[in-house]
Design a protein that fits this description.
Blueprint (H helix, E strand, L loop, with lengths): L1 H12 L1 H8 L3 H8 L21 H12 L8 H10 L7 H10 L20 E3 L5 E10 L6 E9 L5 E7 L4 H14 L7 E4 L8 H9 L3 E4 L9 H11 L11 H17 L11 H6 L2 H18 L17 E3 L16
Parallel strand pairs: 2-5, 5-6
Antiparallel strand pairs: 1-7, 2-3, 3-4
Helix pairs in contact: 1-2, 7-8
InterPro entries: Integrase_cat-core, RNaseH-like_sf, RNaseH_sf, Transpos_IS3, Transposase_IS3/IS150/IS904
Protein name: IS3 family transposase
Pfam family, one: rve
């Protein structure tokens, strides 16, 4: 429509007025009527910037930067020193650009390097083979002040072998806690003890104790909570318990609550990961007998009313193996289990 209006107005009013009235751009109209000739062949190289250094000047700057006097100095130091002597070669950024083109701009300080953290792979096929422990905070009546709950768990049975509540966390208490956990387990030490990388877990007293007892020490990778799933799951069970207090009035209150909770957890809580047995039953070796009794009860119920069942009922099985990060060589099956 604009082109039609322009074509009608141009013969009467001229190009300028026709463009103004029709809204057509004069530059666009001129470009359409007088297109630039097509350039054949390669595009010519752009003209150098007037401030570009010549090849001789570039060579002189590099020679100065490579000289024994300035070879270990930063370009800013070289530039300032020469300027104080009445010499100006180029800007600081140009010095950096020339050195970068020669591959001579890099971090010369020694950089810290860290070995790759090994993915922990632990397998337990029975109780007292792999323990895992961690510390969680319990809120007190004073804002910002916490009690520390230390908990040691057998990953196969989910049995809380030992727990302690203290007003602080340190390496000495951690060492004493681990020793007490082994005594509470009848003196039977596990083959592996796993923990995260807290200061207490990686402390020298803890490492020395485990080495003395010939227990292999294992740690989670940094910021990988799945490397310690049993402790994390147990703390969630603790803190989501309906009776868990918002705050503890005293350390005696915290210890009394934990005593009641862990007694119930070990001896009454039926854990889905261990065939709906209690952790104490699996840890102390009575779970297989209990499972046999369950099977007899289910068989009697099936014999009395077979129509109520789609198939012969069987009680849940105990896991053959549990692990922290299933090893590649391990093949999972219906009887094995990965996390709490």
């Amino acid at each position: 429509m604009i082109d039609e209006a322009f074509a009608a107005l141009e013969p009467v009013l001229g190009v300028t007025a026709a463009c103004a009235l029709s809204g057509k751009s004069r530059a666009t109209m001129h470009r359409h009527r007088h297109p630039a000739p097509v350039a054949l062949g390669p595009r010519p190289a752009p003209a150098p910037h007037p401030a570009t250094l010549s090849s001789d000047e570039r060579a002189r700057v590099l020679a100065v930067l490579h000289s024994a006097r300035f070879v270990d100095k930063a370009p800013a130091q070289v530039w300032a020193t020469l300027l104080d002597e009445g010499v100006y070669l180029c800007s600081i950024s140009t010095m950096y650009r020339l050195l970068r083109e020669c591959g001579e701009v890099r971090e010369r300080r020694r950089q810290a390097t860290h070995a790759a953290r090994v993915r922990p792979e632990l397998v337990a096929r029975g109780p007292s083979q792999v323990f895992t422990w961690d510390i969680t905070k319990l809120k007190t009546a004073v804002k910002g002040v916490y009690y520390d709950l230390y908990v040691m768990i057998d990953i196969y049975s989910r049995y809380v072998v030992h727990w302690e509540v203290h007003a602080r966390e340190n390496a000495e208490l951690a060492e004493q806690f681990i020793a007490a956990a082994i005594r509470a387990n009848g003196g039977q030490a596990p083959m592996h003890v796993h923990a995260d990388r807290g200061t207490s877990m990686t402390s020298k007293p803890v490492a020395a104790l485990l080495a003395e007892l010939n227990i292999a020490q294992s740690h989670s990778r940094p910021r990988v909570s799945n490397d310690n799933p049993y402790s994390e799951a147990q703390f969630r069970t603790l803190k989501y318990c309906p009776a868990f207090p918002e705050r503890f009035g005293s350390i005696a209150h915290a210890r009394a609550f934990c005593q009641e909770f862990f007694t119930c957890y070990n001896h009454e809580h039926r854990h889905s990961g261990i065939g709906l047995h209690t952790p104490a039953s699996v840890h102390l070796g009575t779970a297989r007998q209990i499972r046999a009794e369950r099977a007899r009860t289910l068989q009697a119920a099936y014999a009395a009313n077979p129509g109520r069942f789609r198939r012969k009922p069987t009680p849940p099985s105990l896991p053959k193996a549990v692990w922290i990060n299933e090893p590649v060589k391990e093949e999972s099956n219906s009887d094995t289990e990965q996390v709490a």
